Inverse folding.
């Protein structure tokens, strides 16, 4: 009886420990990946659909908060809306996060695109 009680208590401790642990965001479906959302967000930006792009980049960042292209995308949305200070902050965040050469190039391109938008605004 004591052994059974010990097993039950141990099981409850494990269950409570799992329930109180850190919450992780899990993909809802197979294509629910940061890269897929960032790519879709870029397509929306190119079409001028900024709110749809923002949703995609936010989802990419939600799935992986260290995914630099998500932050670059959010910077581009802010820049298109004329919020250049916010865009610069987001690009700086992305600059500190990139992990691959492709992501580094994405960040560099993001800086270029934001600078081009700033130049358009000045004219």
């Amino acid at each position: 009886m004591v052994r059974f009680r010990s097993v039950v208590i141990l099981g409850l401790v494990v269950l409570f420990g799992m329930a109180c642990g850190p919450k992780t965001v899990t993909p809802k479906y197979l294509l629910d990946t940061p890269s897929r959302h960032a790519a879709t967000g870029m397509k929306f930006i190119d079409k001028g659909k900024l709110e749809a792009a923002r949703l995609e980049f936010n989802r990419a960042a939600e799935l992986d908060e260290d995914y630099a292209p998500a932050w670059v995308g959010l910077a581009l949305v802010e820049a298109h809306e004329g919020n250049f200070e916010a865009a610069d902050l987001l690009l700086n965040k992305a600059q500190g996060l990139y992990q691959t050469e492709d992501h580094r190039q994405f960040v560099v391109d993001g800086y270029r695109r934001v600078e081009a938008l700033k130049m358009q605004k000045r004219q």
Q: What stands out?
A: Residues 17 and 56 are 33 Å apart (CA to CA).
